[in-house]
Every structure is written in structure tokens, then in C-alpha cells.
Amino acid sequence: MKKRILSLMRAILLAVSITAGMPIPAKASWCSSFSGWSQSYDLSNKSPGEKLAAVAVAQDGKSQSQMGYGAPWCAYFIMDCAELAGVSSAVPHASNGITTTLRDAILANGGYQVGYGDAQPGDIVTIRWDGSKGVDHVEIVYKVSGGVVYTVGGNYISGSKHMVKVRSKSSSSWLKSRILGVYRPNYSSTPSVPIGKTSKPTVSVDGQNVTVSWTYEGSGTGIAVHLVQEPWAWADIKYTQVVSPSTTSCTFSDVRPGYYQAFTIAQPNEAHVQSQWTEFTVQEPHTTHEKGEFRYSGSDHPHYNYYACSVCGEEFTDGSTTPNNSCSQCHPEHVKGEFKYTASEHPHYNYYACTVCGVEFTDNSTATDYSCSQCHPEHIWDAGIVVIPPKADTTGLKLYTCTVCGAARTETIPATGSATPEPDPIPQPDPSPVTFIDVPADAYFADAVSWAVNNDITSGIGSGCFGPDMSCTRGQMVVFLWKSQGQPEPASTENPFADVKESDYFYKAVLWAAQNNISAGTDETHFSPNLKCTRAQAVTF
């Protein structure tokens, strides 16, 4: 029985649609069934756009369940109206019911955007329903009269109901302010080509003066330039200028503070296309800049700091400066810091790091380089000391030292050639001389080394070496003297030196030397046993 009733209803609906001039499809693309749709429309003697509008208006007041939809359905409603009106070629079935997908499908099919003032039946309007900046609702223009645009759309929410609703866009300021664009589907296989086309404009703001620039292609009669204040709406145009096609920019003066979008329209109106918009802000007028982000310091002295005004974005200086170390006025001369090096060329200037800029510079002081022939052209020898006294039948040896660089040379002392009484004998080395790798047999100190080692005064440094060119410490020197005297015990264990401990190898030698006025400390409480012993200290000991 139910199947018969449904079949009878389909037959009745089909008959009505034939009378109206267009058959109802056996199956819709998006709604579950056309059975709840009103067929009280006449498509005869109407343009394609008027047919689409007629089908939509006939559904005014229908609920979501009557229309056969389950999901948000404003875009589905338009596509199904297009199917009933026979204009699916102009308003194609998009891949889904997303509003922007339908808009893009219309554009891809040869449709184009027109101005709000040029709307006509069959155009599609995109709306930002929930107050965001994006498109989330679409409707159909069904009538334009006396500057008033009337639309019809599905999924209108009234209380808890979702329904089809016819509205006047001039009487509903809330909805009027939310229209984002008007799009004309390609209802003809050879749609009219817009006469001119403008690029997305660029905008520069200087206080309350706004300059809009663009490029233009075509042969139209002019270009309309619009500034629309938020919310992004054709119906809320605040400033307009119409200029010739050869003009590429125009300036609006005394623009009120606020958030805007600028766009251009190529004229004439019956074939124009809206450009993309550019958003910008006109700030409240202000007499004093508010310091925001730091931008740069000036290159010229004084080096003023520049900031971006947090209100208008203009760069300004607050009068503060930043020293520039490369500036001769900020940094007229270097300040001597860490010593770096002495030049190898004569004169040997000393170089330092500047504590201000880090550059290495010389203060014109010099250092003496004893290896330099100009600093030290010749040695200046001292009086020399006899290292090995001569005997009647053997030569002696005398050592000279340069008083400038410390270089040494020796001189042979001839044998005395007489049997006159000799001075106190100088200790002689053991008949079997000690051999070290670094002590040649003919070295001026070879006998002295053998004598010192054989008398237990000193020893080598290991690995068969004596280290004749190594320097001695004060501690080592007094040990040599102490051992040469037979290692006598100190007269007292009283120790005035804080840096000499009983466990040190030089402990007794230091006490003995101090008690016998052979050596004193470097001050009253320190002997400084680990300091190098100078030649002057050695001969004094």
C-alpha cells in the first residue's frame, strides 16, 4: 500500500512539474527526496537566473525535514534548486556542501564576481553568518528593486528550526553587513567577458591619508575604487572614487580611524569584476609617538636610536643615542688593555688590545730583542771569573758573561811555569771522570761536573744527562754549597722561613746557610727556595 501511495505522489509531482515547464528529476544529488519540495513555480519565459530564483522562492518556509536534508545544507539547497531549474551546468554539483567549494566551482565554470549594486536574479551571494572573517553561508538573489537586494537561502535558523527564508538585504542591516561577495554563474555557453580587470591593490597610509595603487588590463571606461570599513561588506562602502582607466593610484583624505579593506572595480558596471581586497588600518590621530620596537641606531654622530611608533608605525627617535666604537667622535683614541705581542721588526713596538673596541694597537713603547742586531749589536763582557786556576804545568780557564744578554765565553789561562807555592788546593775530580751525554769531554765545565758528582754534591737529571744549561733554584744552590762543605748540621733547628719545611730536601742546607750568613731569605719570613737563582745570587753565596 505504501509503495502505491509513493508511486501515486511521484506521478502527481511529475504532472505538476511538467505543467510548470520543467520535469522533476527522479533522484536529487543531495536531498533525500524532492517529495517535500513545493512545485508552485513557473519557469516559462524566464532567464536561467530567474528560473533558479523561482525554484528557491517557492520553498520559502519549508523546514529542513521537509526539504530532505540532514547536514548543514545552504549550499546543497542551491545546487538542488539548480537541478530542478535545469541550470546545473551553470551551478554545478560541487564535490561537497562547503560554501567556498560551491563558490569556487561556479568561478571555475566560467562565472565571475560582480558588485553588490549590480546584483540580479540568479546571482549567488556569500555571507559570513557567524561574524568571522570567512564564508560560511550562501544564498540566491531572487529580486532587485529600488536598490534593495532580495535573497532566499536554505538552512536559515529560527529558534530551533532550520528552514528556507526569503529576506530583504536593505531591511536587514545585520545580514547586509555580512555579505562578502556577489557571484554570477555562467548561464550561457559563451559568457560575456569582462571589459577590464584590475590587480589586487596596494595601500599606503600616512596619518589619515590613504593612497591606493593598482594595475589595469582592458579597455573599459573607468575604475571604481572603494574603501569598505569592517565588517567586509559591499553594502557598507565608506569611501569611493571613480577614475580613468589610465590612472594607477588615488588618495583618500581625512579617512576616519578604523579597519578597512580596499578593492577596485573595472567599469562599466554591466561587465565589471571586483579585484582582491587589501586590508589596512587607519590609526587614531596622535601628536606624540609611542615607543615600540627598536629599529636601528643612526650611522652619523650622534648616533640616535630609532623606534617604530606602536600607534602609527612611523619610525622616530626619542633622542637617546648609542656609542659607535667605529666612530672617531665616539671613540677618539684607544684605551690600553691586555698586552698582545711585540713586533719582530726593529724597533720592536709593543701591541695591546683596546678595552673599548678590541682593536690591537701600539702605544709606541718598545721592547729590546737581544737577538736583533740593532738592539744588541755587540756583547759587553764582564770582568770574568776563574773557573779552573792555572798550575805550573797546566792551563786554567776563565769564564766571561755578557752583561746585556747573558751570553758566555771562556778564555784559557796559561800555565804559571813555576813551582811557587800554590794557593789552597781546589778540589779535583775523581781520576775516573763521570760521563754524561750532554757533557762533552772538552767542555769547560766537564771537570767541574765530575768533581761535583764524585763528591756527592749533585747528580744528573736522569737518562744519562746532567742538564748543564738548565737553571738552578735557590734551594738547589744552597744544597750544592752545603754538600761541598761536608753537609754540616745546622747550629739550631729554629726555622724563620714559612716556605721551608722539615721534610724538604733543602731544609738543613737552608738553615745552615742562613745561620752562617751565606744566604738570607727574600724577606724576613720567606726563603723562596723554588725561585731561579741568579748568577748574582750564586756568586754571593
The separation of the N and C termini measures 139 Å
Overall shape: it is rod-shaped
Q: Flag low-confidence runs.
A: 1-28, 231-235
Strand order of the biggest β-sheet: 1-6-2-3-4-5
Helical amount:
10-25%
The structural class is alpha+beta
Rounded to the nearest angstrom, the radius of gyration is: 55 Å
The largest pleated sheet is described as: 6 strands, antiparallel
Count of DSSP helices?
10
Strand content: 25-35%
Mean pLDDT across the residues is: 78
The counted number of beta strands is: 24
Task: Provide keyphrases for this structure.
541 residues; alpha+beta; six-stranded antiparallel sheet; four-stranded antiparallel sheet; disordered N terminus
What does this structure look like?
This protein is of the alpha+beta class and 541 residues long. Helices cover 17% and strands 28% of the residues. The chain is built from 10 helices and 24 strands. Strands 1-6-2-3-4-5 form a 6-stranded antiparallel beta sheet. It is rod-shaped and about 160 Å long.
